[in-house]
């Protein structure tokens, strides 16, 4: 759940509601407001701001303000005329549908880049690079999307395992080597099974990389590094998982590419030499020629 949603569902006292209303009225102006100034302008007190922050699961005002502003920036940005949930209608031509799906995916890419944190991405890449093995936990179509990442990583000699049987997720988490790393993929970040896995990994001090929605969800709180998916897709009323699937694939591609770049020359030499032996094909156009 996002902070904006949590604010609507949380029960506040009269003074606390004044703080929430003040935040919504000031919006981006909050960036330059100190706690003392904000309390004075809202006719409340600094302690009331702290209570609101604590009710919303934040340690203090600065943490709440920072997340609130990030969410405002993300969700109020008008990214497209294409509806991510129902991007086309029955009256659209096939070319119109093609253009709209292409536009949707372009906007998803832009969303992902906007949500990327240099610090979080660097941590994720370092965890993957420094650990002896990697296990991916996911469900449904995310398992299939993870297979392409596993395929490419194996070509670079990175040992990647996918925990593909839901009944075996807990066993797999318990049996992971100490020098390993986990990638947990969950759009909501609230799946009971995924949170059980996260608890086990956290207790075993195995680093968790979460690929999840841009929200204050439990999975992201338990992760060591967080990569946010584009988060504009509804859970049920939609034509397909266009944006979430694109997000997962693109974020995994970014991780693969960043790892490749760690040892670019040797990885390039290895990929080319092994491909020439294992994947013998004839070019059918000049663009394919070496």
TrEMBL record:
Residues 1-75 form the HTH rpiR-type domain. Keywords: DNA-binding, Transcription, Transcription regulation. One of its GO terms (molecular function) is DNA binding. CDD domains: SIS_RpiR. GO terms for biological process: carbohydrate derivative metabolic process. InterPro entries: Homeodomain-like_sf, HTH_RpiR, RpiR-like, RpiR-like_SIS, SIS_dom, SIS_dom_sf, WH-like_DNA-bd_sf. Residues 124-269 form the SIS domain. The keyword DNA-binding applies. Pfam families: HTH_6, SIS. This is Phosphosugar-binding transcriptional regulator. It comes from Enterococcus pallens ATCC BAA-351.
């Amino acid at each position: 759940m996002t902070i904006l949603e949590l604010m609507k569902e949380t029960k506040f006292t009269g003074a606390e509601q004044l703080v929430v209303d003040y935040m919504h009225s000031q919006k981006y102006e909050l960036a330059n407001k100190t706690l003392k100034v904000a309390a004075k302008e809202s006719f409340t007190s600094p302690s009331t701001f702290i209570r609101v922050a604590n009710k919303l699961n934040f340690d203090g005002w600065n943490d709440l303000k920072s997340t609130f502003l990030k969410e405002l920036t993300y969700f109020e940005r008008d990214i497209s005329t294409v509806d991510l949930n129902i991007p086309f209608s029955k009256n659209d031509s096939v070319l119109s549908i093609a253009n709209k799906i292409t536009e949707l995916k372009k906007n998803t890419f832009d969303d992902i880049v906007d949500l990327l944190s240099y610090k979080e991405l660097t941590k994720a890449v370092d965890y993957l690079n420094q650990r002896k093995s990697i296990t991916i936990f996911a469900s449904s179509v995310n398992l299939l999307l993870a297979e392409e990442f596993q395929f490419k990583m194996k070509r670079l000699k990175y040992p990647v395992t996918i925990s593909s049987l839901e009944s075996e997720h807990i066993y797999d988490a318990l049996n992971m080597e100490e020098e390993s790393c986990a990638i947990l993929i969950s759009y909501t970040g609230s799946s009971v099974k995924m949170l059980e896995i996260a608890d086990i990994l956290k207790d075993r001090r195995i680093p968790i990389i979460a690929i999840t929605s841009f929200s204050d969800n439990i999975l992201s709180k338990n992760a060591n590094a967080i990569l946010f998916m584009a988060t504009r897709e509804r859970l049920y009323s939609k034509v397909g998982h266009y944006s979430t699937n694109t997000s997962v694939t693109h974020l995994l591609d970014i991780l693969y590419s960043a790892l490749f770049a760690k040892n670019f020359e040797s990885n390039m030499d290895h990929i080319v030499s092994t491909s020439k032996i294992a994947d013998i094909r004839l070019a059918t156009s000049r663009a394919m020629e070496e």
